[in-house]
Design brief:
cell membrane; globular; mainly alpha
């Protein structure tokens, strides 16, 4: 008999299919309306392609999504670690992300964003390997090392890849060939959701076939190896203002250092960028807390706690919700809803979801509220990416993106440290997230973008 979660996933995928068809027809109609307009011919069509980036992006996100649904379960159900130790492991990852976020972006701007992406592949591969090496009951040193590398890798994943793409977008003049940064972020969000759905189903199959929750981590390592080769062979290198490879000295003068610091401080104290940073800190921090707590929170609502949940299928359902909303992203913008207004709606909807999640009525009610929040996540990434891409100068983009992740990780670490155990703890965290999201939406409304 097909279980309820499989039916839920089927319904969400059907919705995604309907939205995809509707969007395709809308795009075809727009093309028909512009056929009579003559456009300048581009001699080299391949120069417009973002396929090399999108393929690598799919591989690295797939490597991240494959292991996501089973990390908590691996620690709790296979390694039999205590909730306190699991929380400490997750906290280690976020501390690592906070520390590395303070400098990883400037290093990428200086030594090259392609080089930083290559380093990400190596660091994340080691994180996966160290996670699966320890047998149950062994010293947790390797597990802590894995989480530290995982935090560093996450900072890289959500800063240097995006900054490389934006630099490449403008370096090849894609904005002059009818492309828009907004549509590129929309494509990335849609692709990310598709990869995540496949990863959720694939990880469930891998665990069932191998009989261990370690299997998705092995598969992630393989994907990261392929991504490393692809980046090495097909990507160009881009630097920020902090690059000094073309100077006769590897050391900056005091005047150059002062200029870099003053420029960064000026950008971070810009009210619009500050409000965006606050919104991203609270939203993404709440998202990471959700990633940590959705498994135990959903388990706490089960009428039969001894029944194991289909984590991969549930995760795929969350990602299908992301996909459905990301498919509607460009349609929403074309209907004259500004990105700043859209971000306000995202924050408000997310606050509502967390308020409801604090005291769920039933297991299925909790599941669908979680799906609604994931739908907000699906629209958030292209919306926030476009706003940051338009506001932040390319020269120090990776540096600023990295710095914005510092308060995000601090927020998550503090939340994990003050959280206890039991269903009441999940409720307190979700309620706090809801209140902070509502506050962030108020700040954005006052500042304006």
């Amino acid at each position: 008999m097909v279980d309820i979660y499989t039916l839920n996933l089927g319904g969400l995928l059907a919705l995604c299919g309907a939205l995809f068809v509707a969007q395709s027809r809308s795009n075809a109609s727009k093309k028909d309306n512009t056929k009579t307009k003559k456009k300048p011919q581009v001699k080299n069509e391949s120069s417009k392609s973002q396929l090399p980036f999108l393929l690598i992006y799919a591989l690295v996100m797939g490597a991240d999504w494959l292991q996501g649904p089973f990390l908590y379960s691996l620690y709790h159900d296979e390694y039999h670690l205590s909730h306190t130790l699991i929380s400490t492991l997750f906290t280690t990852g976020f501390c690592s992300g906070a520390v590395s976020g303070a400098f990883i972006g400037s290093l990428a701007d200086k030594h090259g964003r392609k080089a930083a992406c290559l380093f990400f592949c190596v660091a994340y591969s080691l994180s996966c390997l160290f996670t699966i090496l320890p047998p149950p009951g062994s010293s947790p040193v390797l597990l802590f090392t894995a989480r530290a590398l995982g935090g560093l890798s996450t900072s890289l994943l959500f800063s240097v890849f995006e900054s490389w793409m934006v630099a490449d977008f403008y370096a090849r003049g894609l904005d002059k060939n009818g492309r828009s940064l907004s549509s590129t972020f929309g494509t990335m969000s849609t692709l990310n959701s598709l990869v995540a759905i496949g990863s959720g189903v694939g990880s469930e199959w891998l665990v069932a076939a191998a009989g261990t929750r370690k299997a998705p981590f092995v598969a992630s390592t393989v994907l990261l190896g392929v991504a490393f080769v692809g980046i090495w062979l097909s990507w160009d290198e881009y630097y920020g203002e902090s690059n000094t490879t073309n100077t006769s000295s590897n050391k900056k003068t005091n005047q150059e250092q002062t200029k870099d610091k003053s420029t960064l401080v000026k950008i971070l104290t810009n009210p619009k960028i500050f409000s965006l940073g606050l919104a991203s800190t609270i939203f993404e921090g709440s998202m990471y807390l959700f990633v940590f707590f959705w498994t135990p929170a959903l388990r706490s609502t089960q009428q039969s706690p001894e029944t194991d949940l289909p984590y991969g299928v549930i995760f795929a359902s969350f990602m299908a919700s992301c996909l459905a909303s990301s498919l509607a992203f460009n349609t929403v913008l074309s209907n004259a809803v500004t990105q700043s207004t859209l971000l306000l709606l995202i924050l408000g909807t997310s606050a509502f979801c967390f308020f409801l999640s604090a005291t769920p009525a039933s297991e299925q009610a909790a599941f669908w509220v979680f799906c609604l929040f994931e739908a907000a996540v699906g629209v958030y990434w292209p919306c926030m990416g476009t706003l940051k891409g338009n506001l932040i100068d390319d020269g120090i983009r990776a540096q600023v993106y990295g710095m914005l992740r510092v308060p995000l990780n601090v927020f998550v670490v503090v939340s994990l440290l003050v959280t206890g155990e039991g269903a009441a703890a999940y409720g307190r965290v979700f309620m706090a997230c809801g209140m902070m999201l509502a506050g962030a939406s108020g700040v954005l409304w006052v500042v304006g973008l």
